From TrEMBL:
NCBIfam families: DegV. PROSITE patterns: DEGV. InterPro entries: DegV, DegV_C, DegV_domain_contain. The lineage of its organism: Bacteria, Bacillati, Bacillota, Clostridia, Eubacteriales. This is EDD domain-containing protein, DegV family. It comes from Clostridium aceticum. It comes from the Bacteria.
Length: 274
């Protein structure tokens, strides 16, 4: 079975290669210039360009043909495909993959992660591990649904700048938030991004994220915790240390948040999924 995903998964390239996961890239447009995620625009270059722009970057879902080509490649080598994608509530990527599935009309299943970044990436890894263990595609999708329901995805926003650029927040609200040092924390719920709470200061925001993990009241010893960051590696590593000290999980994976989610989170954003 071939596992396919899209570039919003934010899994490191070496891990994708190790597991043989095929990635269908999304598109990004910054100030009239078009790029293909992870092909002609690295995460580092994306953040440099975003910081220099007065406009919020725009992302676009892959074309049906990109999915058709990926599906045919997977079918040719493995005879069966499981394609796992960015939340259908946040992008048309899942719908386009479904359209391509119907056009190819072979042994293809498409799964809606109802998440993004490593919230999607960890589901993709889970599917890959289960496939290697010999589970059927039906059983993998059943287990992914359980994993998806259990997963919590929280995002800390350092700034409201991109929300202002995108027209979701007024400049006045941004000024007030900056004056009061208010830091929004959002989460992914039923595939949508919703504001969870607003706290004063970064330190309190980090404590809040750790408290939310503790409220889960589970053992993390056999779990992978994912952290993605918007060009703020030092903060991500600091959070990783605190998570290891407090919860002793099986692994804490730290990667850069890509353009698809990063364009909305803005510089300094942090995502934790568990």
């Amino acid at each position: 079975m071939k596992i396919i995903t899209d570039s919003s998964c934010d899994l490191p390239q070496e891990l994708l290669k190790e597991h043989g996961i095929l990635v269908v890239p999304l598109g990004i447009e910054i100030d009239g210039n078009d790029y293909i995620d992870c092909i002609d625009l690295s995460h580092h270059d994306f953040y440099k360009k975003m910081a220099a722009s007065n406009n919020i970057p725009k992302t676009s879902q892959p074309s049906p043909q990109r999915f058709i080509d990926a599906f045919k490649e997977g079918l040719q080598k493995y005879g069966e495909v499981l394609s796992i994608h960015l939340s259908s509530k946040l992008s048309g990527t899942y719908s386009t993959a479904m359209m391509a599935k119907d056009m190819v009309n072979e042994k293809i299943e498409v799964f809606d992660s109802l998440s993004g970044s490593l919230g999607l990436g960890l589901q993709v890894l889970k599917a890959s591990q289960l496939a290697k263990e010999g589970f059927s595609v039906e059983k993998i999708m059943e287990k992914l649904k359980e994993y998806r329901e259990e997963m919590k995805v929280i995002v800390y926003l350092e700034t409201l700048e991109n929300a202002v650029k995108g027209g979701r927040v007024t400049k006045t609200k941004e000024i007030v938030a900056n004056l009061l040092n208010l830091k929004p924390i959002v989460h992914v719920e039923e595939g949508y991004v919703r504001i969870l709470k607003t706290v004063r200061g970064k330190k309190k925001a980090m404590r809040t994220m750790l408290d939310m993990m503790e409220e889960k009241n589970i053992s993390f010893k056999d779990r992978i915790i994912g952290i993605t960051h918007c060009d703020c590696l030092e903060e991500a590593l600091k959070l990783k240390e605190e998570i290891i000290e407090k919860f002793n999980p099986a692994e804490v994976m730290v990667t850069t948040m890509g353009p698809v989610i990063g364009s909305h989170s803005g510089l300094g954003g942090l995502l934790v999924c568990f």
